[in-house]
Amino acid sequence: MLRRILFFAALSTITLGSQAKVRLPHIIGDNMILQQDSEARLWGWDTPGKTVKVNVSWSKESYSAKTDSKGKWIVGVKTPKASYTPLSITFNDGDRTTISNVLSGEVWVCAGQSNMEMPVKGFGNCPVEGYNKAVMNANEYKGIHYVKIPSVMSTKPLDDAQCDWKVIGPQTVGDASATGYFFAQAINKTLGIPVGLVMANKGGTRVESWLDRDYLEKNTTEPLDSMEMVKKFPGDYLRPLLWGNGTFSPILKYTVKGIIFYQGCSNVGDPASQYTKRLNDLVSQWRRDFKLGEIPFYFVQIAPYFNSDVNGDWGPKLREQQFNASKIIPNSGIVCIDDLVYPYESQQIHPSQKQQVGERLALQALNKTYGMKNIWCNSPEYKDMKISNDTCYVNLTNDYGAISRYEDIQGFEVAGADKVFHKANASYYWTKGLIITCPEVKTPVAVRYAFRNWGYGNVKNAALLPLFPFRTDNW
Asked: Phi and psi dihedrals of 97, rounded to 5?
């Protein structure tokens, strides 16, 4: 009896295969956003050796591809400039498949861990500020669509994921990435064009979770055998390789404009420069695999967090590694969010102020990708320091001609040769910069700013963007 069942199952498979209809990956479907003014890739599967024709509503030009021995096919279609005009695409292998309500606009990937994954409606006990307002105003933002790639693990790279595109509205906005959605709001409103978000992320993941097998084998000691992974990382979110294979690989053929990234909490404690190098290498890997050139990469420096000791420095040391990465990753930008944590959120790994995070990422994109140079997008940075007697004079860059305050400047510490830091007094004068003194340190050697796990300061520039944490020592 079992032999007969297997025979009919095999016969059924053969019959279905001979009548196979063009199959598309789930990311190609109704409501999708195509990258405007590009040669957007469309792909899928069909019977080996079959010709698939592709026709688009915005052009008389037709495209075709022949499937390979594994039934795979791919074509590149010229997309129109961004518009709110609904488009359609028909795939024909003798049997037609049409997708509709397609828009042409700007497509951005939302990558990283839980602070990127965190939806507009928040997580349990982790609210997002402005949720109700986002729901009430959702209909004002026409043309923002998103697709959430399911967070799954795989030992091998996957080429499809169970997902579908959603149109932003009161019923759907709550499930969108908050950081991603508020980024899209700013781009959509400023440029007046549709924005598509491809959300490929997973809470708790490390940078190693997204690096590929070849890289991990050559450059790390990460366990890549399944049993060894489970033994070392009982929490699956920390495991290397698997999330990139299962959650990011399915989007790599999709044509996108760039990537926004919010990750790092799970790498706190990494040795000096390790995270800097691996993040740089991850960006190189993604750019290689997207095959779209040096696409922009904008990312978020993690927020202050108690990390089990408010006075420890392992949090700011990871932020320092992120800052250093921004200096070596081409076509990138980093945003500081030191000011976007409320005093009562010292033990909240998911701060609630996500709108400002998304908007600061959008400032980077609007200035650097879309050429709006009149937008001030950068936080101030430490430039240099001069010490005279008991006083340190610190100069900044990217202040846009001003800092936000003359009084009650907080966040600075000074140490002498004993390497013990004490809270310092700080003031500002436009010809001298920041003037820092400390009664306990008569012969200062080093200055730190906001360089504790929970130790943010309050200095901002003329754009009201916060000063990056820094230290002048390397202790």
From this structure: -130, 125
Question: Which one, of 169, 168, 155, 148, lies nearest residue 246 by Cα?
Answer: 155
**Please, how many CA atoms are within 13 Å of residue 166, restricted to the half-sphere of its CB?**
20
CATH at residue 178: 3.40.50.1110
What's the pLDDT band for 9 if we cut at 50, 70, 90?
very low
Query: Looking at the domain assignment, is residue 64 inside a domain?
Result: no
Q: How many domains is the chain built from? A: 2
Q: Does residue 474 carry a pLDDT above 60?
A: yes
350 and 406 fall within a common domain: no
Q: Alpha-carbon distance 20 to 301, whole Å?
A: 48
Assess whether 242 and 180 both reside in one domain. yes
Residue 345 and residue 397 in one domain: no
Which positions ≥6 away from 416 have C-beta within 8 Å? 441, 442, 443, 444, 445
Please say if the pLDDT value at position 219 is more than 50. Answer: yes
- For 160, residues 6+ apart whose C-beta sits below 8 A from its C-beta are 25, 26, 27, 250
- Are residue 420 and residue 274 in the same domain, yes or no? no
Quick one: CA dihedral 363, 273, 199, 131, positive or negative?
A: negative
- Is the pTM of the predicted complex or chain greater than 0.85? yes
Give the domain range for residue 224.
105-369
DSSP letter string, 413-457: EEE-TT--EEE-EEEEETTTEEEEE-TT-SS--EEEES-STT---
